[in-house]
Amino acid sequence: MVQVIILAAGKGKRMGSSLPKALVSVNGLPMISYLAEAVIKSLICEKPIIVVAPDNEKLIKEELKGYNFNYALQDEQLGSGHAVSCALPWLPVDVDKVIVLYCDHPFFSINLIKSLAILKTDSLILVPTILPDFENWHRSFFHWGRVIRIAGKIKKIVEFKDASPQEIEVKELNSGVMAFEAKWLLKNIKLLNNSNNQGEYYLTSLVEIAFQEKRDIQSVIVDPKEALGINSPEELTLAENIINKNL
Question: Of the listed 14, 139, 146, 215, which one is catalytic?
């Protein structure tokens, strides 16, 4: 059984909006609605879990009232690892894979979601995107985490604020989407700590744990336009240009 978790506790401050980030309008529709539709139409999960915050729970529930979702509450925003841990009590006992998505990445396709549900793993699967450069609209990816490989194998994801000058030059970037073998996730998420420049519990730290265990970390590469995130008015304009095929 596959369980989908969508992280949606973020605020809309950087967007210059009074709305929660998940509800910021993208081409006339709330941002989260694109991803909600893709997950439902993928038919991989009977009841996805949405992680919300105390101050946006009611608004998001109202917007998504037509969907069959469970809601997990993240009282404090302590990072992506903490957000996922807030959803774990909602996991069905027979779950064998967990897919984590982010509401501010609205363009992930039904096909990608299905492929993550099917692909086998004993630990985790990443969904990177690869850029030729950081010029023009690719500049919006510059502050993303880098996927670090050794001899072709994924070793870790380093967040931009923790990256060395050499790591910043890497152009294989982490979209944030991850799929986990459920038992492995439940065991190892307890090992996360917040010893980093953000003081947050990074879900991406699980990559290094898997590498140290000599797990075969798989990846599904996606087009940058599918991976695009929306965290600023400029990125919102970029996303709407993609929808309207102006890019």
Answer: 14
